[in-house]
Amino acid sequence: MVLDAIRDRVGQDFIVGVRYTADEVEKGGITEEDGLEIARRLRDSGQVGFLKVIRGGIHTDPAMTDVIPAANSRRRTVVVGAGPGGLEAARVAAERGHDVTVLEAAPEPGGQVRLAAQSRHRAEKDEIIDWRMAQCAARDVRFQFNTFAEAEDVTALSPVKVVIATGSLPEKTILETGKGLAISA
User: Fold this and answer.
1) What pLDDT score was predicted for residue 125?
2) How far apart are CA 6 and CA 173, in angstroms?
3) 3-state DSSP: the chain helix, strand, coil percent, rounded to 5?
4) Is the CA virtual torsion 30, 32, 34, 38 positive or negative?
5) Residue 171 confidence class, pLDDT cut points 50, 70, 90
6) What strands, in cross-sheet order, belong to the sheet with 76-80?
7) What is the pLDDT of residue 27?
């Protein structure tokens, strides 16, 4: 079917991977058992070189429950970083009743995702950031761009909770040649 068509197109020397949700952690969703069966079928197809398995979804991430509890009273929360992780933390905190400010060193949100979205083949990645920004705007999350968050910047906002979501930078030291070709957002 689809995997056969992909394999026919790229040949046997090309590594094909599949990213899928193996447990949606949601009533009526894909269960852990379903996810394991999907993995077995993909493995047995002989068409897949690797799997990237995800648990939960954007609205069901069980880890966020413990990190950002529901607010009994409106608490000041600072999120450092406006990449996808920082925006999601800001959205969840605001949704749970917290007063949220996001500090971002760059002039716009998105981090490495914005860089990836510059490729015409990955332009849809902008939607990851655009949706979260719209959700944050609807929840009155404040943003301070062009702000490298020093300790004084964070403490001046008197937060009760601080989420560090500063993302990543490309590792260029391992490259023997071509270091100038590696770019970062």
Assistant:
1) 77
2) 35
3) 40, 15, 45
4) positive
5) low
6) 142-144, 99-103, 76-80, 161-164
7) 84
